[in-house]
Amino acid sequence: MCKPTQDQLPIWNLNLAAGSVNRHWTRAFFRGGAYARNYGNANPTYLYLANYSTTGRELDTDVIPYCDWLFATRLDSNPADRTVVLPMPPGLDGIGNCERINFILCNADGDVIEIDLDSLGLTGTLPASFGAFNKLKNLYLRENTISGTLPPSLFASSELKNVFLGKNFFTGTIPCPTHPEPVLTSISLERNSFTGTLPACLFTEAPYLQTLDLSYLDLDTTIPNAIQEATELVSLTMRHAGIVGNLPQEMKCNDKLQWVSLERNKMSGTVPSDVVGGMAALYELGLSYNDFSGPIPTIPNTSTGFRHLYLDHNRFSGQFQTQLEGWTANLDASTSSRLYLDHNDLSGPLPTYLYDLIYDAHGINSLAINENHFLCDQQRGDWPAWVFRVGTGAFGVCTPLAMVTSATVPNPGSIVVTGANFVASPELKCKLINSVTSVATIVNAAYRSPTEVECIAPTIAPTMTYAVQVANYGTDFYSPALAGSAYVMRSVVIPADPARTVTTSFVASGDVSSYTAARQAAMRAAFAARAGVPLESVVLSVTAASVNINLEIVYPTATAAAGAAVALTAAGGAFQSTASLQAVLRNAGVPVTVTEITSAPQVVQQNLSSGTVKEVLSLGGIIAIVVSVVVAFLLCLCASTLIQRERAGKPVFSPVGGGVGAVKPSATATSSSTGRSTVAGEHKL
To answer: Which of 74, 327, 413, 676 reaches 20 to 30 Å from 655, CA-CA?
Structure first.
């Protein structure tokens, strides 16, 4: 695994005074460049400067095959005469004292308890004989060129606490701890070529694990739910490690986590607020350069030590007027903090606590929220004035509010909205606010131009007037809250799809004033339940002249509407009779008498361009019309035939049969161009 880089190695003299560069090899001299003839710190008294030149300051020390440190102690020499090199070195064969090797520590019994061989150019693979170090506590092999898989025996020691193998060329999968009672507290395998998944055993079989670093690996894995069992975990670092999937809900159980670094992976989904809140000891959360979406998480004010938040380069969207208030409240001038939210899809106005964060002696020393879609100040048409006091570099360019000037319904299912500042955004939305219920429905919109978008009209609601608002980025709707004094409500009447609408009316006892809003709501709920449609799909109106009650129910499909029109009047239907309808109302808490069903349930037909409504005939009426049309067509066909015969000079009517009065055709024949004879007077078809 290690051999001298030169045939002529320096001979160290242990009899020299302590601190002499020629007494024996030391890490301090090595790192300081005392052994390097081409380095500014070379020690001129070093006897082997001409042929033994190396330093720990190279740009990439782990690729230098430098193992002379191991032979510097002259374990391969004769103890009586260090100038005599033996062919079989006794020191590594159990004859010598392990403490004579730099970076090897032993206990009083001579057992190796620490191996610290960082940055020493080791190459080759790790042997399975590592299991012989059954008292090993600390293993440091970072920044070498060791390759191959990790032998399971590496974790065999019952006292092993720290394993640091970063920046090598290890391959294969990450092994599990093998000792039945492991005491591992730190595992660092970063900058290797491990593949596969992140084994759950790292969390289930290492109950004392505090630090885990798996950055810059070639994994393809989610974070296992078993991470919740690592209750002592303090630091989790997996940058650019091939992590996919969501941030697991189970991480809210890791309440001792202080550092979470998951940057530059392929994680997605939302970041649940309860997970972030559950990690109450957080100091730093790094989720940059992933594919997270949805709102940014809410940071509770119970996370008193939380200072660094990195959510940049994701797809977080929406506003964050309140999510970071708790985080901001815990900052003070005595500590530094960082907030990176840049390169997302955040929108809406700038939160006011950003002003507080910058001006009220908080310890914020780095802020980046550029490359988002925060709104311009409506009065200025630019950032608020306070932004200019710190400069706009951290804020980028603001986005004008989408303005609405009019809305029309050119055809069913479509609303064309005109205005200004529309953007071709994948989050382009329309908000339709019901003028009666004030319920808001958000639908997708299609970009046509900076002054025009097309919204998808609701297809299950009845004819209704809606206030129309547009948002370029999902939540920044043209509204009184954002437009201020410039807001003017724009409305549109959206007709229901006639093929899916059933109307009916009836007369009930009482007067209009007795049908309070609560009573009408109960009636609507009863009819919605009987029809199997949402409450908002039922419109009920009450007018005078006795009490006339008109009902409109919108069904999901035309087929459902046609079927309902029949079912409502069939046996067991609500409109089978006045008695059955009266029972439905009484069960809904409306004890009135139904005196007449003035219009049976039926599907209506509506002309959307004119807004007129006309009733469709009943099934019997439709059949009668069809029969009449067929009879009229046949009569017209017969009349046309008779007229043609009369114009041709042919008899309109001919006697039937050969009895008296029958006209016998003439025997005179005329030749035709086809050579066939045609009887005179015969009508050839």
So the answer is: 676
